[in-house]
Amino acid sequence: xxxxxxxxxxxxxxxxxxxxxxxxxxxxxxxxxxxxxxxxxxxxxxxxxxxxxxxxxxxxxxxxxxxxxxxxxxxxxxxxxxxxxxxxxxxxxxxxxxxxxxxxxxxxxxxxxxxxxxxxxxxxxxxxxxxxxxxxxxxxxxxxxxxxxxxxxxxxxxxxxxxxxxxxxxxxxxxxxxxxxxxxxxxxxxxxxxxxxxxxxxxxxxxxxxxxxxxxxxxxxxxxxxxxxxxxxxxxxxxxxxxxxxxxxxxxxxxxxxxxxxxxxxxxxxxxxxxxxxxxxxxxxxxxxxxxxxxxxxxxxxxxxxxxxxxxxxxxxxxxxxxxxxxxxxxxxxxxxxxxxxxxxxxxxxxxxxxxxxxxxxxxxxxxxxxxxxxxxxxxxxxxxxxxxxxxxxxxxxxxxxxxxxxxxxxxxxxxxxxxxxxxxxxxxxxxxxxxxxxxxxxxxxxxxxxxxxxxxxxxxxxxxxxxxxxxxxxxxxxxxxxxxxxxxxxxxxxxxxxxxxxxxxxxxxxxxxxxxxxxxxxxxxxxxxxxxxxxxxxxxxxxxxxxxxxxxxxxxxxxxxxxxxxxxxxxxxxxxxxxxxxxxxxxxxxxxxxxxxxxxxxxxxxxxxxxxxxxxxxxxxxxxxxxxxxxxxxxxxxxxxxxxxxxxxx
Length: 651
Ligand SMILES: *[C@@H]1O[C@H](CO)[C@@H](O)[C@H](O)[C@H]1NC(C)=O
Ligand SMILES: *[C@@H]1O[C@H](CO)[C@@H](O)[C@H](O)[C@H]1NC(C)=O
Ligand SMILES: *[C@@H]1O[C@H](CO)[C@@H](O)[C@H](O)[C@H]1NC(C)=O
What we know:
By secondary structure, the protein is of the alpha+beta class. The protein folds into three domains: 3-29 and 223-323, Immunoglobulins (Immunoglobulin-like, Sandwich); 43-79 and 81-173 and 209-214, Galactose-binding domain-like (Jelly Rolls); 328-647, Alpha-Beta Barrel (TIM Barrel), CATH 3.20.20.80.
C-alpha cells in the first residue's frame, strides 16, 4: 500500500535520487528554448528491405558506407510510419529481418561550426532492434521497439567541411523468446511443402507486429554544458503544493542552477537554486483528472536555467518542464488522486490505424482524444506498450489518467521467464520510467499483460520486476494485468492494484450471456477475498462486425456486444461500491492482427471501427461514462457545459 507522500518524503527521497543512475543520461523530451533548436527529419526516407536469404547482405556489402541508392534500388518510405501497409508488395507486408532507412539532413552552419554546440540525433521509436550510422560511422544501437534513444553526433558533424549528414538506420523486427514482446522464428525444412530456407515468425500477442520508424526522428541542439535530466515529485501539505525537483547537469562540474515555477498566467510562484530542492506553492492549483474539479489538469511550468561561468563569458541552457501537482495513493479498496477516490471509466487502446500501421500521426491523435471526450472517458491503459510521448503530453493537458504499460505482452513461453528475459525487462522499465516519470497523467505502471503467471518462475520474475519498478519510482503504484486463475497466479501478490481481464460468454461459454453476472461476481469476490486489494476490470468485450445485426442477439452482432457490456455493468455497479475501482473496455477501436482463422481483417472488439466510427455499443458506453462522470464531478456546472460541447477539448 502506498503511504501518503508528504509524510514519507524524507525516507523516499534518497531512493528517488538514485533514479536514472542505472541508465546513462536522461531522456528529456526535445523542446526548443533560447539555448536549444530542433530539426524534424520526418518525411520521405530512402528504404530497402534486405530480402537476401540470410538477411545479412546489407552488412556484408556495408550499405551504410555510401548513399543507399548506390547499392541497389530504393523505395520512398514515409517516417513516421510502419513499412508494412504502405506498399503493394505482400512480401514486404510480412517481411521479417533487416530493413534499411536513409536520409540526408542539411544542417545550419551554426550547428557545424560552433564547438560549443552539442548536436543530438534522437529516434522516437524503431521497432525492434536498430543500428544507426552517421556518414557511414556506427553511432548507436538500441533494442526495444517503443522507447526513444539518442546519441551525441557533434564530433561527426563538426569534423569536416560537410554542411549535411547522411543518417542510416537499419531496423530488425525479429522477435525472440527474450525480446519484449517475445516471439519465435519457425523454420520449415520439409521441402515437399516449403521452399528452401522458409521461415515464419510466430508471436503470442493479438495484434500485428507492425515495424519500422514509428515515431519522429529528429536532431536537436544543446550547449556543450547542458541540463541532462530533471526529476519532479509533487506532494501536498494541507493546501501547500510541494514540488521536489532534482536537475542533472552534464558537461561541466562548476555551474549555477536557478529554477522558477510559473503558473498558467506565467507568474512566478516559487523559485529555487541548486540542483535539488523543494518549492512550496501555497494555495496550489492541483492537477485533477478531467471532470473531477472545475479546474482540471492545471499545469505549472518549471523553468530551469543553467549557467556555466567560462573565461570568455558564460554558457546558459534553458529547459521548461510542465508540472502537475497531484498525489496518488492506494488503500485496500480505493484508488486515490489528491486524496479523493478515483474510478477509472475508460478504454484500452492501440497505436494502430489504416495504412500508417503504428506510425505516429497528429490528426489521428486529435481525433482519438475528441472521441475519448465524446465518450466521457477519463482514462486509458497504454495496451500493450508505451505510446508516443506526444500522447502523454495531451493526457497531462486534458486530465486523462493513464495506466502506462510496458511492452511485456505475450510472456507465456517458459524461456520468456528466464533471467535473460528478466534482465531485459528490468532495463525496459528503467527506460520507461526515465522517459515518463514527470507526467502527472501517469498514475500507475503496468509491467505486463496476460503473462502465464501460473508458471513456477513467474513468482520470482514478478517479485523482482515490481520491486525494481518501485525502486525506480516510489511514488506510483505498480500492477500487471492478469488473466490467470486467482488460485494459480504467482505474481498478483506483489501488485498494488489487481487488474483482471475476462471475456465471459465470449472465449468461454460462447453465446451464453446468462452466465456473465454469476461468473463476474465470482471473479471479483475470489480475487478480493484472497488479496484485499482494489480491482480494475482491465479488459472485457466482444468481437463485433460493424453493421451485423441480429435479434435476439447473436455473437459478432452489434446487439451482442451491447448485451455483453450491459451484463458486465450490472455487476460492476454493485462492486464499485465496494472495491472495484475501474473498468476499461476492450477495445477503443478495431485493430490489425496476424492472419488467423478467428480474426476477420483484424480484431473487431472495438466500440469504434478502425476508421473511428461508432458501433452501437459506443452509444451505450457513452451514456454510462457520462453518468459516472456526473457522479464524481465536483461541480455540476462544469459537467453541464462539457455536455453541451461534448466533442472538442477546450483549454
Ligand atoms: C535480425 O534478423 C535476422 C533475420 O530475421 C535474425 O536471424 C537475427 O537474429 C536478427 N538479429 C538481431 C540482432 O535482432
Ligand atoms: C533467476 O535467478 C535467481 C537468482 O539467482 C534464481 O533464484 C532463479 O531461479 C532464476 N530464474 C530462472 C528462471 O532461472
Ligand atoms: C450529466 O449531468 C448533466 C448536468 O447536470 C446533465 O445535463 C446530463 O444529462 C447528465 N448526463 C448523464 C448521462 O447523466
